Amino acid sequence: MQTIKYFIGFDISADDFSASCITSPDNLVFSTQKFSNSIDGANELLSLLSKHNIKQSESIVCMEATGVYSESISYFLASKGFAISIEAPHKIKNKTKDSPRKNDFIDALAIAEYAYRYSDKLPIWKPGNEILQQIQVLLTTREHLSVQMIANISALKTLKHKHYQTPLANRIYEQTINKLKEHIKLIDLEIKTLIDKDDSFKNKISLAKSVPELDYFWLQIFLF
Q1: Dihedrals phi, psi of 3, to nearest 5 degrees
Q2: pLDDT digits 0-9 by tens, 187-224
Q3: Assigned CATH topology for domain 6-117
């Protein structure tokens, strides 16, 4: 990476994000600008950066970890060659609490200043493997469905012990349980399909299968 000249701070929410850029705390390239948290907003940001002749190789984008809200813009900018740093919100807040900018609200400019002050310590975020990300979502979904299925099985068992039976209620639980089983089966098939697309994953799973007790909980640890 070349010497960083531009420090771009992001403040991200579900619907939009704000960006501010500095070369130092005393040199503001552009004040906080707001964009839609969408592909259109990301392209508008690129236009603004181009207008100021800000090159990817001379820049770093810093933002707070906001889960899925920061995913799209992070992947988009990484694909354009920008270095991305994603920090825990409490870490940025703790480091900026003594800043002359006395404000509990950590905005884009404060994050840009944080990036400047701690540029040598910023972790560089790397995009995750697409297949691995999909498997992770499927495993999480499978876990949620399994919890629902166990709850429905338990509820049905309780109903069947009642003196007066309610056929409709029993039937609804039975249908729900069967549907959840179908969905879990579909997830298992999709996970297998995704694993088969990548030889490194296939090798890991082959090793995992040598342990009979390995379940989906351990599969998550094994892969991630």
Answers
A1: -60, 130
A2: 999 988 988 887 776 666 665 555 455 555 545 544 54
A3: Nucleotidyltransferase; domain 5 (3.30.420)
Q: Helices (DSSP H) in the chain: which residue ranges? A: 39-51, 71-79, 89-96, 108-117, 130-160, 167-196, 199-208, 216-223
Question: For residue 183, what are the CA distances in angstroms to 29, 146, 178?
Answer: 52, 10, 9
- The pLDDT tens digits of the residues spanning 93-135 come to 887 766 555 444 468 999 999 999 999 999 999 998 888 889 8
Instruction: In whole angstroms, give the CA distance from residue 112 to residue 153.
Output: 52
User: Do 6 and 54 touch, CB atoms closer than 8 A?
Assistant: yes
Domain spans in the chain, listed from the N-terminal domain onward: 6-117, 130-223
Q: How far apart are CA 112 and CA 172, in angstroms?
A: 55
**What is the DSSP-derived secondary structure letter of residue 62?**
E
Residue 196: CB partners within 8 Å, gap ≥ 6? 202
Return the residue matching tokens 């994000």. Answer: 17
Distance CA 123, CA 68 (A): 19
